[in-house]
């Protein structure tokens, strides 16, 4: 987190960072708003304070870089926070997405009830979430700079923030500011990231440690670590997709009938590694006869014709599968959660880039979450921000993203990073840290096989593996959409937080 600027007089230094310079400067953001509320289930009842506020992000020299919007939920005991209680910093990914989905979609104290794989309609109601992680930890939902209500300072260089390393740097500074302003130094610090948020987690868990913030635990929901799998023609991509295709084909009755869902997925995972992987590695040396044999076996798993699979040389892309699996019904399936479906686009709507962004799984829930979130801010907290809430700002943030990353241990910047190396470094420096990897069978955005593969390639010692756990669910990318999964996730997190 080096910064060559000199610190101005009057700047206060905390863990190597000047973070309290000119606290009155707010870049025009509204004043904080808070309210004491009551959380109640059949098992417990307690008061908590909800606060909407911005966290200033300063450079080492005390110059304002950004104001990050936060929505905090802090349990009160005797009217005061319990400083011994964990605090979990939560966020979504993108890059370019705000934190509303993980908050009002899943783990916050309020949640919009879902309806299986159906699109939500009016009335949009946020009900108390009996599976909220607020029962286990105080929660701070953070919007990355350029998303939600978070703003970048006018004279700051967005290129220093919109990138893997700059993003982690900004979050580190914001987290330290929250701990300082709330008097929570010493509270166990946890991280909860979804999607690109797991890339952020991987780097942030290392960077926080380098700035003397001891991380107790990290939850990786719907992970992606090795960026190579996103590059055109990479076999890691096709291997990641295959078990997810198999799960989806079974869900729609195209394969694996009368087989337990987990058993079917395990069988697909094993076949993927034992048969498909070596076949892809051989390329045309596999031979036409063997290729046809593997294609026939693959067809049994993923529900597409063997001839189609063979013509693609065993490499079925996501668009092809989404268009093909329900073609006889005139539908296409989702991407974030392949169980969702919608009417197929017109034949003239043949743009692959456009189709990739069309997702029934997103359309079904996203706007309802944002509506409930905005209503909570305005009606419950009395917080009003005249700015447009940028729940998704990929055009402004993601398209400007710097993918170069300084890989720890190599002293090199690479444009297709593998941030699992950051996880390994953070664990070796802090072997008391816990990490939970969560994912779903129907997630085609961040596939489960790749998560398992990437972590296995770290060759972590057994004592570290004892601090790591994997939980796979019958859901898609946004696990909390599925209410049975949300209940299971809560129980797994309850054990995770209490694990010594």
Biggest beta sheet attributes: 11 strands, mixed
Number of strands: 19
Rounded to an integer in angstroms, the radius of gyration calculated over CA atoms is 23 Å
Helix proportion: 25-40%
**For the terminal residues, how far apart are their CA atoms?**
31 Å
Structural class category: alpha/beta
Percent in strands? 15-25%
What are the SSEs and their pairings?
Elements: E1 13-14, E2 17-18, E3 33-40, E4 45-58, E5 64-77, E6 80-81, E7 87-91, H1 100-107, E8 110-112, E9 126-128, E10 138-142, E11 151-152, H2 164-181, E12 189-194, H3 196-210, E13 215-221, H4 235-251, H5 261-282, H6 288-302, H7 306-311, H8 318-324, E14 331-333, E15 341-343, H9 352-357, H10 360-363, H11 366-380, E16 405-407, E17 412-414, H12 420-429, E18 434-440, H13 448-456, H14 462-465, E19 468-473, H15 483-498
Parallel strand pairs: 7-10, 7-12, 12-13, 13-18, 18-19
Antiparallel strand pairs: 1-2, 3-4, 4-5, 5-6, 5-10, 5-11, 8-9, 14-15, 16-17
Helix pairs in contact: 1-11, 2-3, 3-12, 4-5, 5-6
Features:
single chain; 500 residues; alpha/beta; eleven-stranded mixed sheet; two-stranded antiparallel ribbon; 15 helices; 19 strands; 34% helix
């Amino acid at each position: 987190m080096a910064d060559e600027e000199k610190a101005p007089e009057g700047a206060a230094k905390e863990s190597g960072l000047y973070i309290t310079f000119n606290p009155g400067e707010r870049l025009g953001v509204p004043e904080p708003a808070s309210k004491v509320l009551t959380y109640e289930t059949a098992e417990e009842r307690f008061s908590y304070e909800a606060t909407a506020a911005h966290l200033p992000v300063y450079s080492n020299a005390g110059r304002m870089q950004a104001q990050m919007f936060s929505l905090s939920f802090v349990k009160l005991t005797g009217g005061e926070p319990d400083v011994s209680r964990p605090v979990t910093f939560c966020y979504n990914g993108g890059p370019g997405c705000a934190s509303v989905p993980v908050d009002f979609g899943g783990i916050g104290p309020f949640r919009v009830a879902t309806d299986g794989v159906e699109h939500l309609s009016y009335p949009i109601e946020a009900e108390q979430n009996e599976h909220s992680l607020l029962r286990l930890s105080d929660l701070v939902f953070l919007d990355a700079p350029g998303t939600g209500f978070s703003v970048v300072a006018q004279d700051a260089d967005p290129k220093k923030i919109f990138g893997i390393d700059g993003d982690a740097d900004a979050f580190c500074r914001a987290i330290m500011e929250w701990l300082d302003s709330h008097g929570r130094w010493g509270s166990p610090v946890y991280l909860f990231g979804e999607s690109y948020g797991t890339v952020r987690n991987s780097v942030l868990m290392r960077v926080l440690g380098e700035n003397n913030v001891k991380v107790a635990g990290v939850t990786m929901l719907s992970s992606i670590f090795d960026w190579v799998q996103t590059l055109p023609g990479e076999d890691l991509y096709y291997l990641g997709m295959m078990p997810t295709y198999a799960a989806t084909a079974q869900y729609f009755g195209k394969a694996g009938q009368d087989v337990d869902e987990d058993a079917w997925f395990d069988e697909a995972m094993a076949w993927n590694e034992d048969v498909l992987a070596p076949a892809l590695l051989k390329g045309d040396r596999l031979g036409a006869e063997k290729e046809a044999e593997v294609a026939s076996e693959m067809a049994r798993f993923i529900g597409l014709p063997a001839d189609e699979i063979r013509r693609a040389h065993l490499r079925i892309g996501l668009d092809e599968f989404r268009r093909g699996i329900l073609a006889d019904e005139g539908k296409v399936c989702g991407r974030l959660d392949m169980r969702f479906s919608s009417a197929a686009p017109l034949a003239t709507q043949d743009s692959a880039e456009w189709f990739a962004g069309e997702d029934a799984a997103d359309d079904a829930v996203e706007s309802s979450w944002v509506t409930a979130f905005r209503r909570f801010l305005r009606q419950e907290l009395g917080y009003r921000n005249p700015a447009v809430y940028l729940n998704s700002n990929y055009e402004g943030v993601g398209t400007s993203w710097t993918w170069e990353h300084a890989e720890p241990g190599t002293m090199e910047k690479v444009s297709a990073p593998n941030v699992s190396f950051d996880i390994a470094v953070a664990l070796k420096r802090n072997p008391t840290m816990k990490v939970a990897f969560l994912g779903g069978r129907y997630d085609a955005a961040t596939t489960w096989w790749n998560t398992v593969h990437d972590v296995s390639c770290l060759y972590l010692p057994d004592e570290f593996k004892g601090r790591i756990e994997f939980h796979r669910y019958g859901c898609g990318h946004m696990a909390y959409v599925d209410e049975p999964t949300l209940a299971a996730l809560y129980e797994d997190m309850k054990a995770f937080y209490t694990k010594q």
